[in-house]
Specification:
With 444 residues, this protein is α/β, with parallel strands linked by helices. Helices cover 41% and strands 14% of the residues. Residues 433-444 have a biased composition (Polar residues).
């Protein structure tokens, strides 16, 4: 293991490789998708460009009219596969007329050298992957789970896991650009995808055109601080739901949480991701009837841990997490200590790399953000837009995700940005007042 760690530590920081852009891919019909597919070969370890390779799965929906460029898409995560994204975007947006829509499975996901950590069904329960403490705040079981997962991941996927980083995924994106023969790319990224986009503009400042970042992460809080912000985000989102619902739903939540435990807490957290779930959430609080739990994808979970643990520093002492959980439960009782709990990162055998320091972007960047977001609070979008020198549009609503979700005026303004740039965006009469129905948004 010492030899493995030494080799890995040297491989995590990779030099940029200059490669001339030229179209070099052959497209074929995608299996079970109305898209074209191909693969792009990239180094597993960018510090050893002539070493082992992995294939990145790429999809395309060609522009239906005059093409202005390519738009790479990332659905977030980390750990979400993206091969289907062009279909989603083309079904909901005029972008399909002017852009070749490009999806890809980030390394470690989907069809791109997938990793699984050999997870069992029990280990994939969502309240374990996203670690809720015991009802009294004790994290003994969480510590055992985190320790086992770290060990198991490297026994099962130790060859690939150390090379799953945001910087390497950004480098893969640039190899996709080169394979497509494009001088620049435009980009749409959600949630974690906002950080990935920011890393790309930092590592490849001259290759970015128009970048739309939706539901942004604070680039200065990678990653433990970002996860700790969930406590505030969940609390604010639940308060917004409570205002919508009326009555003492907080008391109902507390009673059901005591009765149903972490499966209930986990399901409520998921339902706070969109206002359209509010009626179902209110019904859950009235009836206490849980939906069957949907197990987390093994690949998604493994890549989530790899990104989080390979980047940034994490406390190694479990006692630190226990103290933080007790404190967090006092501040954010709905989250019950989730946001401060221990992750496999506390036992990760590979030293983390320093996160990429985000610099002001030379590309045109627009950040979209709901004012109440359970996963990426508004403060993250403010920090991201400041770091990039980007425009920020906030939608006064709750949920995780703005573009192509519910906020139609914001979607129209952002589409104008991608089609016309900042000039086209600024010319919209509602560019500073975008929202849905009685909700409003402000450009900051």
């Amino acid at each position: 293991m010492r030899i493995l760690m030494a080799l890995i530590a040297g491989a995590l920081v990779a030099p940029l490789v200059s490669v001339t852009a030229h179209a070099s891919v052959r497209w074929r019909p995608c299996e079970r998708l109305p898209l074209e597919c191909t693969t792009v070969s990239v180094p597993l370890d960018y510090a050893k460009p002539s070493g082992p390779k992995i294939d990145i799965a790429v999809s395309r929906k060609k522009a239906t009219k005059v093409k202005r460029g390519v738009l790479l898409l990332n659905p977030g995560g980390p750990g979400d596969a993206g091969l289907e994204e062009p279909k989603f975007v083309s079904d909901h947006s005029a972008l399909a007329e002017s852009y070749d829509l490009i999806g890809f499975d980030p390394r470690g996901t989907g069809r791109s050298a997938p990793v699984t950590c050999g997870l069992t069904d029990s280990q994939r329960e969502p309240w374990k992957v996203f670690p809720y403490p015991a009802p009294d705040g004790d994290i003994t079981d969480n510590i055992a789970y985190a320790r086992q997962i770290a060990k198991q991941c490297f026994e099962h996927d130790g060859r690939v896991l150390p090379h799953i980083t945001t910087a390497n995924t950004a480098r893969d994106m640039d190899r996709i650009r080169i394979a497509l023969g494009e001088r620049k790319i435009s980009y749409l990224g959600y949630s974690y995808g906002t950080y990935l986009g920011a890393v790309y503009t930092t590592l490849f400042p001259h290759q970015g055109d128009r970048f739309l970042l939706d539901s942004a992460i604070d680039p200065g809080g990678i990653w433990r601080t970002a996860f700790q912000s969930w406590g505030r985000g969940i609390e604010e989102s639940f308060d917004h739901f409570a205002q919508w619902a009326g009555g003492d739903v907080r008391e109902a939540y507390s009673e059901l949480a005591a009765k149903l435990g972490n499966p209930f807490r986990s399901q409520v957290r998921t339902m706070l991701y969109a206002e359209r779930h509010y009626p179902a959430l209110l019904d859950l609080l009235k009836t206490g009837k849980l939906e069957p739990a949907r197990l987390k994808s093994a690949t998604s979970s493994a890549v989530w841990w790899a990104i989080a643990c390979n980047e940034g520093k994490w406390p190694r002492d479990p006692a630190q997490y226990q103290r933080d959980v007790y404190e967090s439960r006092k501040q954010y009782p709905i989250a019950n200590g989730l946001s401060a709990n221990i992750w496999p990162c506390a036992f990760w055998p590979v030293p983390p790399v320093e996160p990429v320091g985000i610099r002001k972007a030379q590309a045109k960047v627009l950040v979209l953000q709901n004012t109440k977001d359970p996963a990426t609070p508004l403060s993250g979008a403010v920090a991201m837009s400041s770091a990039l020198g980007a425009k920020l549009v906030t939608a006064d609503q709750a949920g995780h995700g703005v573009y192509l979700y519910t906020n139609h005026p914001a979607t129209a303004a952002a589409t104008d940005f991608l089609l016309e740039g900042t000039e086209g965006f600024a010319q919209r009469p509602d560019s500073g007042q975008v929202g849905q129905q009685s909700q409003r948004a402000t450009q900051e």
